[in-house]
Design brief:
- It is a single chain.
- The chain is of the alpha+beta class and 172 residues long.
- The protein has five helices and seven strands, in the order ββαβββββαααα.
- A hairpin with a 6-residue loop joins strand 4 and strand 5.
- The chain is elongated and about 70 Å long.
- InterPro entries: YceD.
- This is DUF177 domain-containing protein.
- It comes from Croceibacterium xixiisoli.
Amino acid sequence: MNTPEFSRIIDRRQIIDRPVELEANEQERAMLAGRFGLVGIDRLQGAIHLITEGDVVRAEGRLQAAFVQSCAVSGEDLPRQVDEKIALRFVPATETAAVPDEEIELEEGDCDEIPYSGHHFDLGEALAQSLALAIDPYATGPDADRARKAAGIMDEAAAGPFAALAALRRDN
């Protein structure tokens, strides 16, 4: 298994009552930008407070990032900022794995659970994945409409699901 680009291994047994400060260096940010399809990441940091509850570790804090992504339509560079709360739970991996193609019902809190084995979990990778979830894959910039028109693509209102109904109504 490859080591993640922004790996910060935490030993559950060594957690003390103070925030863990994480910051990706230039090389880690460049590798994460490649992985997430971004033009670049200028800043990725987090201040996370870890709370142990038996074998479960709650991680609460802030994710802050500055990055540049390409407009989904025109390809122009779009500077973006993320500053949001994160709340994760690191839980021991269970011995029973899900059966392939078995439907699993998840509760709202289950989506932010990250399994770990032994006494170690990767807080840096969790922060990187939180950034990935915060990126809008369909972000558009101010030149998106001009680029659509130049390419002969209709805007969303003209091509959306109700456009066909409106056209039928006009024909009648």
